[in-house]
Amino acid sequence: MQINRRRVKLTRDRVFSSRELSLLAILILIVAGIQLRNSTFLSSRSINDMLKNYSTTITLALGMMSVLLIGGIDISVSATLAFSGMSASLLMRDGVYSSTLVMFLVSTAIGTLCGLLVGLVISRGKVLPIIATLGFANIFRGATYIISDSRWVSAYQFDSAFKRFAQTRTLTFGLMNNLVFIALVCYLVFFVVMRWTRFGRRIYAVGSNPEAASISGININRVKLAVYTMAGSFAGLIGAMYTSLYASAQSDMGMGMEMDAIASCVLGGVSLSGGQGGVPGVLLGAMTMTVISKALPLIGISQFWQKAIKGIIILIAIIINVLAQRAIHRNAMRARERQI
Known about the structure:
Layout: H1 2-17, H2 19-37, H3 44-53, H4 55-69, H5 77-93, H6 100-123, H7 129-148, H8 160-165, H9 178-196, H10 198-208, H11 210-215, H12 220-246, H13 257-267, H14 279-298, H15 303-339
Helix pairs in contact: 1-15, 2-14, 2-15, 4-9, 4-12, 4-13, 4-14, 5-6, 5-7, 5-12, 6-7, 6-12, 9-10, 10-12, 13-14, 14-15
């Protein structure tokens, strides 16, 4: 009987001390509350539209997660997204190619080069990440306006197959939207990389204790360079996703998406000081941000109140997650005391 009580208590402590489970509980409560206000929220069409429309932000959170894990930050990703998407769109407009696959590859490659440049300045030039990425955010955004001459690439200037790509389910033979499938594949691959590869372990090591990581033989500069390059790759990929979703390319596209990506990571338990966080938590954080963004206008909240309400919900969720993390530390300390 005593053993069963201990097992129940241990299970209860794990449930209430897990960031992911606490965030999942919050997400369920939010969804339930919205459904009570608007019965169409959980319809299959509404869910599909929500996931499709916010697949870009959901995917961008992965690139931001890798940067935050090493104790850095990248506020240039939205500008990288715009520059990559606009550059690839201009090439399609001018008839350089018409293939959807080539469009995605070109945009991703341009984003990768942008991320590589940012990574070089931070890892080799020893410039603070916030300063470097702020500078590059302005450079890339300005370059986007220059190459586009401050004009849009309109829907009629894109290949028809590319415009249909974001609205169809060809990649999964009708199972799910193409953009949602790309986001899902990115999360699955990233989960494997962060959980079971040497590169993933090195990212956590650099973020947790850079000095110890360096002593153990990890090339910190190389890891930083790889992480910022990877963040640029995600931004480039999303540049193509974004232009396909809206069937247009504008110089100001993606403006402010880096803040939603950072918020998704923090909600999901990624520490701003580095070394802590996981892919499942980031997915839940991104889904929470998506649900909030979709729901507020749906239930008739004024646009003047939407940002304030979103901020309050995020703040409450973060406080709850912090309390859950403290519970984890307390349980760990108690376990060590029992062993002693």
